[in-house]
């Protein structure tokens, strides 16, 4: 009997475009996961896969939008507040965008309104800001859960759901492989958090420092989790040189991270052999 696979897609903003290589590789290997978990951009990629989109579908859709500054600008304009009242709801926020409106403008039509309509079970993380804990969504309305998971502080407004104020899921659980540990024989985790890099930014701005500090915090969380339990496969695409909002650099990022496909194939083969060996010994 073939092993059951689970996949956890980590958060990392634009760095999460590298998740597309992982989905394409799983397609090439004929692997359909039985469980998916995701944080932030990983939740969005996971939703696409859970909805039945192939890696190629996601890749072509992403390039059709992010490969054109005009298309991105058009969709950003489409996500603007509909009324003045909406624009100042909760107070005037100069630097915070409404992530729910932005996702509505950018998400593909393939992603349904509810978790129940997905083809593969999906768990989406968010951070319950005032509850001081992780929030995990796996049923009900899907789009607000994705928005909450992607609500990067200082960039996007928090999302209100079930009377909770929710922000970026990566704050509490950057790579949520632990959420599906009991649901699959082989769990694959994809870490795209990255780390501050001086390759292009030897004199970081205050914004660079803020995002870099968040990267360090998330890597500390991941290291602590790995000390307690580990996925069967952990891959880390080389994404550190890219900023969290570098979505327009999709072509360069995809080109520079394509090597992750061969690495993942080797790691999956190793994991399958280990599981088969364990089954024979039992």
Query: What does the radius of gyration come to?
Result: 18 Å
Outline the biggest β-sheet. 8 strands, mixed
Structural class: alpha/beta
| Global mean pLDDT | 91
Name the helix and strand elements from N-terminus to C-terminus, one letter apiece. EHEHHHHHEEHEEEHEHH
Query: What percentage of residues falls in helices of 4 or more residues?
Result: 40-55%
- Cα distance, first to last residue? 14 Å
Query: For this entry, what is the oligomeric state of its chains?
Result: single chain
Low-confidence stretches: 83-95
Number of strands: 8
If helices are DSSP runs of H or I spanning 4 or more residues, what is the number of helices?
A: 10
Strand fraction equals: 5-15%
Shape: globular
């Amino acid at each position: 009997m073939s092993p059951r696979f689970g996949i956890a897609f980590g958060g990392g903003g634009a760095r999460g475009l590298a998740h597309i290589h992982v989905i394409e590789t799983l397609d090439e290997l004929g692997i359909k996961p039985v469980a998916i978990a995701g944080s932030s951009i990983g939740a969005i990629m996971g939703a696409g896969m859970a909805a039945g989109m192939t890696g190629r579908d996601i890749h072509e859709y992403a390039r059709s939008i992010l490969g054109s500054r005009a298309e991105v600008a058009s969709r950003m304009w489409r996500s603007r507040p509909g009324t003045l009242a909406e624009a100042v709801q909760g107070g005037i926020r100069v630097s915070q965008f409404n992530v729910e409106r932005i996702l509505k403008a950018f998400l593909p039509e393939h992603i349904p309104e509810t978790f129940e309509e997905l083809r593969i079970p999906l768990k989406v993380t968010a951070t319950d800001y005032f509850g001081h804990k992780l929030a995990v969504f796996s049923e009900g309305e899907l789009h607000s859960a994705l928005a909450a998971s992607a609500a990067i502080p200082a960039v996007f407004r928090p999302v209100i759901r079930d009377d909770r104020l929710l922000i970026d899921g990566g704050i509490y659980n950057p790579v949520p492989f632990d959420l599906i540990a009991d649901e699959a024989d082989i769990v694959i985790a994809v870490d795209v958090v990255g780390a501050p890099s001086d390759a292009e930014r030897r004199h970081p701005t205050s914004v660079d420092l803020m995002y870099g500090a968040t990267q360090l915090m998330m890597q500390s969380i991941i290291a602590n989790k790995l000390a307690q339990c580990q996925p069967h496969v952990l891959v880390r695409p080389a994404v550190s040189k890219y900023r969290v909002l570098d979505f327009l650099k999709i072509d360069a990022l995809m080109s520079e991270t394509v090597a992750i496909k061969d690495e993942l194939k080797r790691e999956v083969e190793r994991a399958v052999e280990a599981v088969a060996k364990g089954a024979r010994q039992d």
